[in-house]
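Can't attach files on this board, so I'm pasting raw text. These are the components:
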Amino acid sequence: MPVALPNIIKTFINLQPPNQTRGGKPSKTPLSITDLIAPPMIEVDFDNIKMGNYFFRTLFVAGYPRYVNANWLEPLVSFNHTLDVSMYIYPQRSEEILENMKRKIGEMEATIQSDIKRGHVIEPSVQVALEDALALQQEIAKGAQRFFQFALYVTIPSPNLENLNKTTRQVEATLGSLMIVTKKAVLQMEEGFKTTMPMGQDRLMITRNMDTTSLATTFPFTTSVLTANEGILYGLNEGNGSLVIFDRFSLENANTVVFGKSGSGKSYMVKLEVIRSLMFGTEVIILDPENEYETLTRALGGEYIKFQFGAGTKINPFDLGLLRVTEGDEENELNQKILSLHGFLRVIMGKLTATEDATLDRALVLTYKQKGITPDPATQTKESPLMEDLYKTLIGMENQIAISLADRLEKFVKGSLVGIFDQQTNVEITNPLTVFSIRDLEDELRPIAMYLILDYIWTKVRRSMKRRILIVDEGWYLMKHPDSAQFLYSIAKRSRKYYLGLTTITQDVEDFMEVELGKAIIQNSSLQILLKQSSAAIEKVAKVFYLSEGEQHLLLSCETGQGLFFAGPAHAGIRVIASAEEHALVTTNPKELEAMKEKARIDKLQIASPPSQPMGNQPLAEINKPTASQVKASPMTTVVIEDLPKKEPATTPPSQMQSSQPQPIPQLNPITPPIIKPGEPAALKPVPASPTESPLLPQQKPEQPKPDANRPLFTVVPIDDGKK
Ligand SMILES: Nc1ncnc2c1ncn2[C@@H]1O[C@H](COP(=O)(O)OP(=O)(O)OP(=O)(O)O)[C@@H](O)[C@H]1O
Ligand SMILES: [Mg+2]
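---
Top answer:
C-alpha cells for the assembled complex are below.
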C-alpha cells in the first residue's frame, strides 16, 4: 500500500492539519513514495523502452558455446559500460531428468538405426547429441552431477538511442566472440526490463539446460579494475588483462609493503616504480642494504651515498641543525632530539634498566650543555656534540652505572666499530633520487646504520614537504630490534602528514610478521603487494592478509614478477612488466649482468670509437653517470623525461640504448609485453643501420651524429627552485 510521505512527516512534526501539503495550499492528492521514485514517463517501444530520459534494451541468450572454460563470462562482467546482467538458475529433479533422457536417448538411437537401415549417412549432430546425453545420463545416475535450467539476460541502459544501438552492437560482438548467440527481446521489452531488475522474477523464461560443472563456470568472478587516470604503471591485471595504473598517493596513506621470497621480483618491481615515479616528479630516497640500486641510480643521475669504513660519509646522531624547519623557526629541538637519541642508543647498547636510562638521560643533557646547547632555541645553532663527547661525559660522571654505559659505547667511539657516526654530518639529500648503501658494513652495524640513516631522512622529510617515496629494502633488519621496529612503525604512522610514502620490502616475511610492530606496519600500509611466497611462510601470510585458498595457491605457484596487488579494498592478480631498457637497468640476474658486462667488454675491444660517440661502447652505468658538476653544482635537480630523438635511419649511429627491433612500450602495449630471454639483453644491442655506419669504420660515416641523437631516455636537468 502506498504510504503518503508528507502525511508521515506532518504527523511527526505536527505542523499542519492532514489535508494540507506544501506551502499550506490544500491538495487533494498528496505525493506518495511511488510518485516520488517513479520515473516521469515510460514509453515501451518494440525494441527498447524509454524511461524518463533513459533508454533500455534487453537481450536474451539464445545459444551457448559447446565448450567453456572457468570464468568464461568475464568479458561480459567487466564490459566497459553499465549493464544489468541477470542469471536465473532453476534446479531440476534428477529422477524426472533421467526419465526424460531415457526417452530422448531412445529417440536418438532410433533415428540413427533408421538412418542405417535406409542406407543414409548418420546425422553427425544426432551422433554427438547422443554421446553427450549418454555421458550426462551416467553422471546424473551416479549423482556426480545435477541438472539445471539456466537463463541469462542483459539489459543495456543508455542516455540516447544512438548510444544504445552502438552499445548493443558491442555487447553482441563481445558475446559473439564467446560463441554466445544473443537476441533482442523484441516486443517483450517491458518483461525484459523487469526480468533484469533485482526482483528475482524471470518473465521471459528462455532457458537452456546445464549440468553442475557447466553451471559452475558461469560464476561471475570479478576482479578489481585498477586502471586510474593518474599514477604509474605497476603491471598487468592477470584477471582481465587490463593495466594496473595507480597512484599510491590517492589512498588514505601512501605506504606500501612488498613481501615475497628471495628472487620473487620485489626489488625489480620497486625499481620500476622508482623509474616511473621519478618521471612524474616524485622524489625517491632509498635505503639499500645490498647495493642493488647502484646501476639504476647511476643511470638515472641519482646520488649514491655509500656508508663504509674509510668512505668518509658520516652522519652525526647528535646533529641538531637538521631539525630546523625554516629560518627563524624558534622551536626547541633539543627535547625531541634527546628522545630520538634514547631510541638510537638502545639499539646500540641493548636493553637498559630504568636507572641506566635515567643516567643516560642526564648524560645526554649534560653533553649538550657542555657544548653550550640548552633548551633555549638560540643556543641550538652551535656545533653539536659527537658520540665521543657523550662517552667522555659518561666517564666523567664517575658512577658505576655511567661507566658501564660508557663501556658499552666504547667500541663505537674508539674500538672496532668506529665508523659512520662518530663525526659531524657531511651528507645532504639534494638529488631527487638519493640512495644510501650500507652493504659494506658489518652485519652488527647494519640495523644501527639503518636506524641512523632513517632518522636523518625522517628529519629531512619533515623539514621540507614534498611528494616523496622512502624505500627500505630488506626491512626485516629493522625488525630485529624493538626500538628500530618502533621507529619504522612511527614513520609509517606519521608519513601521510609529510606527503611521504614508505615502501617496506622484505623477503623474511616470517621475521617481519612475528613482531607485533611488523603487523602494525602492514596495517598502516594501504598498498600491499605479495609476490611468490615459500610454503613455510604462506600460512602466516594468509592469516595476516586474510587470503583465500585460491590466493594462497596463486602465491605458491606463481612465477617471478607475479603476485597479488591489494590497493585498499581492491584486490587484483598482477604481473610486473618492464620494457627492454628498463629491464637492463633493474635486473639482478647474475647471468644477464655477466652477459651485459661481456658485451660491453667486447664492444670496447672491437670499437675504436672517437670521443664524439659517447654511448657507442661504454657500459650502461657509465653512459648516464652524471658528472660531478651535474650533481654537485645544482643543489636541486630533477629527472625529466624527454622525447626520444627522431632518428633518420641513414644517420642513426649505433646506440646502446636502442634494441635491434622496435620495442613496444609496455605501458601502451599490454598484450605483447616485452619478452627478454635470459642471457640476451636486448637493450644492449648496438644497431648498425647500414654498412657505412659500422662502428668499425667511423671515418666512412657520411656525417657526424647529431649531438642529441644519443641522448639517454632520462636527462638530468638542473632546475632553480628558488631556494638557493
Ligand atoms: N617482472 C619480471 N620480469 C622479468 N624478470 C624479472 C621480473 N621480476 C624479477 N625478475 C628477475 O628475477 C630476478 C630476481 O628479482 P629481484 O632481484 O627483484 O628479486 P628479489 O625479490 O628482490 O630478491 P631478494 O629478496 O633476494 O633481493 C632478477 O634477475 C630479475 O631480473
Ligand atoms: Mg631484492
